[in-house]
Amino acid sequence: MGSDLSVETSLSDKELFVGQDITFKCEVNKCGASAQWKKDGRTLSEDKKYSISWGRGTKGDTFSITIKNVQLNDDGYYSVYVRHKDEKVKSTARLTVKERLKIVKPFGDVTAHGGQRIVLKCGVNRDGATAKWLRNNKQMSESINATMTQSGNEFILTIEQAKSKVKMMKELCSLKLVIDPVRILLHGPIGAGKSSFVNSLDTIFKGRITGRALVDAGTEKSFTKTYKAYRFRLTGEPGVLPFVVNDIMGLEQKQSDGAHTDDIIKALQGHMRDNYKFVPGSPLSEEDPDYISEPSLTDKVHCLVSVISADAISRMDNNVIKKMRAIREKASDMGIPQVVVLTMVDKACQLVASDLSKIYSSVRIKEKIEECHTRVGVPMNCIFPVKNYHDENCLDPEVDCLILAALIQILHLADDYLFDLYYSEGPPPKGRANSP
């Protein structure tokens, strides 16, 4: 007595692109059988679309169907029904047809002026695709001014162009802040460039190299000894700009050296009077005449700026990092916004040292920003790479624009914080710009 009819080689699922040919093949264990092909229950016959054939295999009859130039409507289930005398067997497989990947929503040429945001969008015909962006045939990486996002089958590149110095100065002068002055506190390890940042701001506003904040690159101790507040004015313009920058003694490894974390926290809270002289290891006490027992809003800090050297971030002592995180945690409890000014980018990257405009495309600077984000905890979009004036004897527009961009963002963050304080207690002051 012979064996029952059975399928020796089943149809297997196939996946291919539009325009290709595909063959399904099935073998049974007996000879002299007949077969019928169906797609989704509909009988198929030989024609220009389908080529149906029969042959002999190693164990019995083989049955094949070739589908030519497959299209999206050929997607479906294909079955072969084999009959031998009174016996029947069936094999089924799925054909999945996909369109070839192609761009269905291209972007065109864009002409933009300095300071404008550029958004390029590219749509493809398939979900699940990935993309990389190229600039001059070189792959781009995310940077401070370039972000790459994906929404379904659409890829988006956003480029924030650097504003011109003239536009930045105009924006700065037109700011209408909640209070005057907004107080910005600089802190960070010794030698990171806090006082140089103050001098760089003063240089930009006066249009000449200045040195109001004393610096000393030859010491391993903080050269800043007092809680010094700096105000700024534009040369040829009346009055002063609506913010003040407080420089502070640098953080050191030991709690007995450099600025004490309690002192910086007291400064955040507005308890520290301007020109207070620091005593390492002995924080300001409530009995001290420089202690402000009932600080006003203008005495308090409205934005905490950590000044860190890009060249030294990898070598920063863990105790200094712990101090900075403790100060940031207290600032966070108070709702004070926090940013990082990442200095000495020219020392961290040779490419940037030779051409400062490459700062946004420098892989090395991006790595330093990521490292700073990881170690200090500040979000990457709140870390601003800059170069302070150091050995220059004249102004550099590239240096100016980086510093001004950081300053403007700091003032916006501080103003948003102050507005929220007012808004939670009632309507903002009259004349406040951009009130809701």
From TrEMBL:
Spans traversing the lipid bilayer: none
Domain Ig-like as annotated: residue spans: 3-96
BP GO annotations: immune response
Entry-linked InterPro entries: Ig-like_dom, Ig-like_dom_sf, Ig-like_fold, Ig_I-set, Ig_sub, P-loop_NTPase
Listed name of the protein: Interferon-induced protein 44-like
Coiled-coil region(s): none
Gene coding for it: LOC115821634
